Amino acid sequence: MIDLIYAFTHLSIDPLKHLNISTKNRIITKHNKTMNILNSIFLMMPQEGSEGGGTQFIIMILLMVVVFYFFMIRPQMKKTKEQKQFREGLKKGDKVITIGGIHGKILDVKETTILIETEGQGRLKVEKSAAAMDTSSQMAEQKK
User: Fold this and answer.
1) What is the DSSP string of the chain?
2) Fewer CB atoms < 10 Å away: N or C end of the chain?
3) Do 127 and 112 contact (CB within 8 A), yes or no?
4) How far apart are CA 78 and CA 68, in angstroms?
5) Residues 77-101: pLDDT tens digits?
6) pTM for the whole thing?
């Protein structure tokens, strides 16, 4: 495909003469878009002979990685760790809210499931991973 595009754009012969006009235009448009993207990438790179261009580029990339880590990756890892500790620390008598919004009191804790009692003495067996938070933490958030 690239050979056809090269021949079409750089040689005087028309390797796409057997194609209709709309197909030729689509191939040319795709080629132009690809070339624009490549040109943008190469223009971001430092020029040869410019002083400190390469180090500035590397510093900017490293700075972007650090920003992503501290503002996106690290907080998510911290939140995941807190949720795991909360689910491992569930015990009988705790009041919880599930990810579906069901409020209940834990009656039994097994390895992967918990049995909760809802209002009206209803009992539900749910996965531990469905327990989102305890009601005391929700109350503390509402007081703030």
Assistant:
1) -HHHHHHHHHSSS-TTTTS-HHHHHHHHHHHHHHHHHHHHHHHHSPPTT-TTHHHHHHHHHHHHHHHHIIIIIHHHHHHHHHHHHHHHT--TT-EEEETT--EEEEEEE-SSEEEEE-TTS-EEEEEGGGEEEEHHHHHHHHH-
2) C
3) yes
4) 15
5) 999 999 889 888 889 999 999 999 9
6) 0.50
pLDDT tens digits for range 19-58: 666 666 666 666 666 666 666 666 666 556 555 567 788 8
Taking CA 116 as the corner, what is the angle to CA 129 and CA 137, rounded to the nearest 5 degrees?
65
What's the token pair of residue 35? 């070339």
**What single-letter amino acid sits at 107?**
L
Torsional class of 5: left (φ above 0), alpha (ψ -120 to 50), beta (otherwise) = alpha
The Cα 115–Cα 79 span in angstroms is 25
Domain 90-143 class? mainly beta
For the chain, which residues make up each domain, given as ranges? 1-44, 49-88, 90-143
**How far, in Å, CA of 95 to CA of 106, rounded?**
6
